[in-house]
């Protein structure tokens, strides 16, 4: 069987959870993989080792998506190590502590929008500057990781988080139209309740069985969708959002 080699993929927030599973799935699908992380270097190193174990090259870069300089450095270091990037998984994100809108303060709002929204816009912009055929690039794909919360609103928990992700859905639609003729597909995914460290203690135990499928999802189940969207198998898809939420 001929080995499939797809190019270089960059996964932000690839040290844990959905990003880590996506990195491993992409490596299994034939991509060399750059991952970024913010603090968990050991977890990032383990993901690099898992990608290498399936025969691909991989590198981890520490970069905070809330910092524009970090984003530029991240793209530079991954490109230097692995070559031109052809897929960007815009995944790094945080949730806010459970609270009602009436009790939010500026600091909380600035933090979640800075990382989830401004970070996602800056990563997408940096990807376009490198991949656009109008700017000398070879084209590519951007997969934005949003949330079902963007549609459901996340009342009584984190409406601010939901709003930060709704803006990411708008980024997917607008940017897809902007760069469709520049060789870049832009797609969004909206995970539901997925078993990762992102949840406050006890949340998954409390509501994990509430999706119609009766259980929370696994990071690997989201990663399989990401790998599909990044691949040529999704070559006629752009500007779409796909839910992976157990019917939620
Ligand atoms: N899990 C769910 O139920 C769910 C549902 C819908 C959407 N999502 C979205 O899916 C994405 C991944 O979530 P997850 O559940 O996999 O979360 P997670 O397990 O908490 O992992 C978050 C990842 O993002 C990185 N990260 C956090 N803040 C960052 C920053 N400022 N700059 C760079 N990297 C940063 C973390 O790096 P370190 O390891 O270094 O901390 C880690 O790799 C997020 O955008 C989240 O909103 C998750």
From TrEMBL:
<dbReference type="InterPro" id="IPR036291">
    <property type="entry name" value="NAD(P)-bd_dom_sf"/>
</dbReference>
<keyword id="KW-0560">Oxidoreductase</keyword>
<feature type="domain" description="Ketoreductase">
    <location>
        <begin position="7"/>
        <end position="183"/>
    </location>
</feature>
<dbReference type="InterPro" id="IPR002347">
    <property type="entry name" value="SDR_fam"/>
</dbReference>
<dbReference type="GO" id="GO:0016491">
    <property type="term" value="F:oxidoreductase activity"/>
</dbReference>
<comment type="similarity">
    <text>Belongs to the short-chain dehydrogenases/reductases (SDR) family.</text>
</comment>
<protein>
    <submittedName>
        <fullName>NAD(P)-dependent dehydrogenase (Short-subunit alcohol dehydrogenase family)</fullName>
    </submittedName>
</protein>
<dbReference type="InterPro" id="IPR057326">
    <property type="entry name" value="KR_dom"/>
</dbReference>
<dbReference type="Pfam" id="PF13561">
    <property type="entry name" value="adh_short_C2"/>
</dbReference>
């Amino acid at each position: 069987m001929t080995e499939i080699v797809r190019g270089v993929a960059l996964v932000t927030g690839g040290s844990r959870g959905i990003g880590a599973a996506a990195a491993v799935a992409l490596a299994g699908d034939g991509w060399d993989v750059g991952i970024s992380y913010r603090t968990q270097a050991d977890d990032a190193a383990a993901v690099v080792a898992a990608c290498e174990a399936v025969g691909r090259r991989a590198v981890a870069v520490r970069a905070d998506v809330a910092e524009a300089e970090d984003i530029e450095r991240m793209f530079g270091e991954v490109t230097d190590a692995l070559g031109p990037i052809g897929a960007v998984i815009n995944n790094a994100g945080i949730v806010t502590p459970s609270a009602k809108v009436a009790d939010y303060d500026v600091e909380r709002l600035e933090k979640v929008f800075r990382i989830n929204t401004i970070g996602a816009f800056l990563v997408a912009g940096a990807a376009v500057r490198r991949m656009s055929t109008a700017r000398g690039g070879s084209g590519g794909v951007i997969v934005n990781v949003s949330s079902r919360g963007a549609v459901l609103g996340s009342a009584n928990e984190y409406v601010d988080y939901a709003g930060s992700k709704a803006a990411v859905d708008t980024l997917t639609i607008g940017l897809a139209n902007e760069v469709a003729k520049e060789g870049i597909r832009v797609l969004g995914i909206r995970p539901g309740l997925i078993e990762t460290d992102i949840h406050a203690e006890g949340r998954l135990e409390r509501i994990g069985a509430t999706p119609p499928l009766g259980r929370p999802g696994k990071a690997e189940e989201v990663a399989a969708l990401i790998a599909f969207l990044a691949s040529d198998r999704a070559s006629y898809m752009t500007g779409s959002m796909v839910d992976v939420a157990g019917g939620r």
